[in-house]
Amino acid sequence: MRLTNEDIGSIKACAEKHFGANCVVRLFGSRVDDTRRGGDIDLHIEVEDDALATLSRKIDCLCDLEREIGERRVDLLLEGPSRKNGYIDAVARETGVQL
How far apart are CA 77 and CA 45, in angstroms? Predict the structure, then answer.
């Protein structure tokens, strides 16, 4: 996995702040593969309550994350009870690494 421990800590802290302590954070995509270079940070966050899976919370989380880890490309996908089991969610759960 191509993230520093500091990056992982910042990601988890931002996710918990905006989506609750019970959210599940996964890294997926090219950053999971140690043999690759570059690439954006693809995050999949699973929440228990749809009230937590809002666009405003997503934007706030991304802003906080940028302050913490710098200007890096981050894609953040939210999965809640009413938006569950989409194709990309399945890919993230199957190929991703829980942080």
Answer: 6
Looking up residue 29, the CATH number of its domain turns out to be 3.30.460.10
Q: Which residue is associated with the tokens 């929440």?
A: 47
- CA atoms lying within 13 Å on the CB side of residue 2: 15
**Which residue in this structure is represented by tokens 């988890």?**
12
Q: Tell me, what's the pLDDT at 33?
A: 79
Whether 58 and 78 have beta carbons less than 8 Å apart is answered as yes
- Total domains in the chain come to 1
pLDDT value for 59: 96
Cβ count near 52 (within 10 Å): 17
Residue with structure tokens 């990601």?
Answer: 11
Residue range of the domain that includes 44: 5-98
Using alpha carbons only, give the angle 32, 82, 53 rounded to the nearest 5 degrees. 60
* pLDDT tens digits, 15-69: 999 999 999 999 999 889 777 777 789 999 999 998 998 999 999 999 999 999 9
